[in-house]
């Protein structure tokens, strides 16, 4: 299996999120269900070509998403493994709190607010949350689903750019997703910063369903 450069040799590299055996059927269904798409109906009036009389209003249907989640295609660069948009490098700046560790750096030009890379790991319920893991983050609190990349994952687990501003900061959404989207960073200097280089958020990818964790 192809792995990114500087990937720890003893750590499993995931190409898809994996689910723990503790997840309930309801939680698994939630992870595999695309956010709702509903239709709204508007009406418009039309006129005939040879008179000024109006016909009855005609319905026109418009699709819109009943969710704030971005829907990510399976072919998105953010879901490629290894991800060509980021690279894992040692943090060499002595002023960085994670100096000597590895961080995630951009390998291509990335626009502000753009989804960079999926955060893959083991999906699990609240009951198996690890108090010792530095890689365990909520995916959806209402469903009691979290994702832990301590024992395996992808490049997303190397987001390591605290410097006084948390990078794991989820925005509220009206629905949830099949995986957590993350961002690169890891570089830079100084003892503090005004905002994180990357934020975590939720997205749904129809081609990235979880498989059972071994």
From TrEMBL:
Taxonomic source organism: Hypocrea jecorina (strain QM6a)
Top-level division of the source organism's lineage: Eukaryota
Pro residues composition-biased segments: 1-11
Protein name in UniProt: Predicted protein
Entry coiled-coil feature ranges: none
Residue stretches of biased makeup (Gly residues): 180-191
Species lineage: Eukaryota, Fungi, Dikarya, Ascomycota, Pezizomycotina
Region of interest (Disordered), ranges: 1-20, 36-60, 172-193
Bias-annotated ranges (Low complexity): 39-54
SUPFAM superfamilies: SET domain (SSF82199)
InterPro entries to which the protein is assigned, alphabetical: SET_dom_sf
């Amino acid at each position: 299996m192809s792995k990114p450069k500087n990937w720890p040799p003893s750590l499993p590299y995931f190409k898809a999120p994996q689910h723990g055996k503790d997840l309930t059927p309801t939680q698994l269904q939630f992870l595999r269900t695309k956010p709702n798409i509903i239709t709204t109906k508007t009406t418009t009036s039309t006129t005939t070509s040879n008179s000024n009389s109006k016909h009855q209003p005609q319905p026109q249907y418009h699709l819109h998403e009943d969710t704030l989640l971005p829907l990510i295609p399976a072919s998105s660069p953010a879901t490629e493994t290894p991800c060509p948009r980021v690279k894992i490098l040692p943090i060499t700046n002595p002023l960085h709190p994670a100096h000597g560790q590895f961080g995630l750096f951009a390998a291509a030009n990335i626009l502000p607010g753009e989804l960079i890379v999926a955060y893959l790991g083991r999906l699990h319920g609240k009951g198996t949350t690890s108090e010792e893991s530095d890689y365990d983050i909520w995916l959806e609190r209402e469903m009691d689903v979290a994702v832990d990349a301590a024992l395996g994952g992808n490049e997303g687990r190397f987001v390591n750019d605290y410097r006084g501003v948390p990078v794991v900061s989820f925005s509220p959404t009206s629905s949830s997703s099949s995986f957590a989207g993350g961002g690169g960073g890891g570089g830079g200097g100084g003892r503090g910063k005004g905002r994180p280089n990357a934020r975590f958020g939720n997205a749904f990818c129809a081609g990235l369903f979880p498989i059972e964790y071994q």
